[in-house]
Write a structure and sequence with these properties.
NDH-1 is composed of 14 different subunits. Subunits NuoA, H, J, K, L, M, N constitute the membrane sector of the complex. By secondary structure, this protein is mainly alpha-helical. The chain contains 19 helices and two strands. The chain folds into two domains: about 350 residues, no CATH class; about 40 residues.
Length: about 450
């Protein structure tokens, strides 16, 4: 990538030229694009649900759905029909307007975010040359974050309107989780903005023509992969639906089509964040490295949509792989990972990227850039080592505290607020748990005495 291509002024002019392609389509082309996106997302949801169950079945050495249609491909369709035909029950005492509107608030923003995703270059669509993208904006990348923030309202309002403590707790958990991981996700975008010099999605894809940002900004890409799983409430971060704690989370009191809307919102959000990862980090619709050299027309016509879809399918597979491989984390671990690990790492990484970027744009010598990078790396590693020692010290103190609590609980049955029957504690004393063998003998002896006294009384 040449220094001229890295110049933000050149990137700004390039983004303006790409924006000129939009807003000139006939109304029927725009309608076809919008309907195409809607149909594509609905088909992706159906196929993703089926793939989720089939791949998970193979990972667990079972078949998965294999009855409805060839190879079980129509299972998701029949599940949707079954859900739509179920009785729609609204609990008494709920806020009906908010209760009904919450699933729509959760689902609609997920569809809107896909409107700025570039699926390919300009193509010939029914005799009209048009970009394979519905629209683009000067701040299109921020639209994705805005729609994700709007979707949170559907979760928390659904839990609040249900008038159920379990649903409310699930809604609060979901909102806290999404907000926490949305901050780390937004910081991942910042590094991309610095490198691309534009916020338009088409301009960001154009900036990756030579090198993908997943290579140049590997820490941002890896953190984005983690945050997109947390953003969509998928395993191992599906704490909003912990079956052993809060049943179904914010969807506990929902059924029929309203439950389907929440379910649809989750899977459409998965499709959206996967498409965003392809756009920002995996080169968008550009062919993988090496393919364009072997195939001259790899980045022309409708071929780029194939490359985009293959990248999209690979990222979607990560959701299933993570769900089948990783156990659910605790809620405190979830929040600690977001606030104490991902966000600080992102802040340090963005600082380093910004410094190096400014040095490159100012024409600094490679020796100066290498020295700055080396110094920054040493300081970062020292800070990381200090933080690691602090964490280990905390873990050691926590282990000592647990051992002390266990010792006290062993000697005092009532320690920690555990329910110990008063008669048992007063009769056998604190040695009940300390000497299990003597405890068993004492209980047996007491039972024998009572039996003997009973026999004497009855005999008399």
């Amino acid at each position: 990538m040449t220094p001229a291509a890295l110049d933000p002024r050149v990137a700004h002019l390039a983004s303006e030229s790409t924006l000129e392609m939009f807003g000139n389509d006939p109304w029927w082309i725009t309608t076809i694009k919008a309907l195409g996106i809607f149909v594509f997302l609905m088909l992706c949801v159906l196929m993703m649900i089926m793939a989720d169950r089939k791949v998970m079945g193979r990972m667990q050495q079972r078949h998965g759905p294999n009855r409805m249609g060839p190879f079980g491909l129509l299972q998701s369709l029949f599940d949707g029909i079954k859900l739509s035909l179920k009785e729609d029950v609204i609990p008494r005492g709920v806020d009906r307007f908010v209760y009904i509107a919450a699933p729509m608030i959760a689902a609609i923003p997920a569809f809107l975010a896909f409107s700025v995703i570039p699926l390919g270059p300009e193509v010939n669509m029914f005799g009209v040359m048009t970009p394979l993208q519905l629209t683009d904006l000067p701040i299109a990348a921020l639209l994705v974050l805005a729609t994700a923030a709007l979707g949170v309202y559907g979760f928390v309002l659904g839990g609040w309107a249900s008038q159920s403590p379990y649903a409310l707790l699930g809604g609060l958990r979901a909102s806290a989780q999404v907000i926490s991981y949305e901050i780390a996700m937004g910081l991942s975008f910042v590094a991309v903005f610095i490198m691309a010099g534009t916020l338009t999605t088409s301009g960001i894809v154009a900036a990756q023509e030579n090198v993908w940002f997943a290579v140049l900004l590997l820490p941002s890409f890896l953190i984005y992969i983690v945050t997109m799983i947390g953003e969509t409430n998928r395993l191992p971060f599906d704490l909003a639906e912990g079956e052993g704690e809060i049943v179904g989370g914010f969807m506990t009191e929902y059924g029929s089509m309203k439950f389907t809307m929440f379910f649809l919102a989750e899977y459409v959000n998965m499709c959206t964040v996967a498409a965003v990862s392809v756009t920002l980090f995996l080169g968008g619709w550009y062919a993988p490295p090496g393919v364009s050299t072997l195939f001259a027309g790899a980045n022309e016509g409708w071929w780029p949509f194939l490359w985009w879809f293959l990248k999209f399918a690979a990222v979607m597979f990560l959701f299933i792989w993570a769900r089948g491989s990783l156990p659910r984390v605790r809620y405190d671990q979830l929040m600690k990972l977001g606030w104490k690990v991902l966000i600080p790492i992102q802040l340090v990484w963005i600082t380093g990227v910004a410094v190096v970027r400014m040095l490159v744009l100012d024409g600094a010598s490679p020796l100066v850039i290498a020295a700055v990078v080396a110094a920054f790396t040493v300081v970062t590693l020292a800070a990381f080592y200090s933080w690691l020692r602090h964490v280990r010290r905390e873990h050691a103190e926590e282990s000592l505290r647990r051992a002390e609590n266990a010792r006290r609980a062993h000697s005092d049955p009532s320690f920690g607020g555990f329910p110990v029957p008063p008669s048992t504690a007063s009769h056998y004393g604190s040695s009940v748990l300390a000497e299990p063998s003597r405890t068993a003998d004492a209980v047996t002896a007491g039972a024998v005495d009572r039996n003997e006294k009973g026999e004497e009384v009855s005999g008399a």
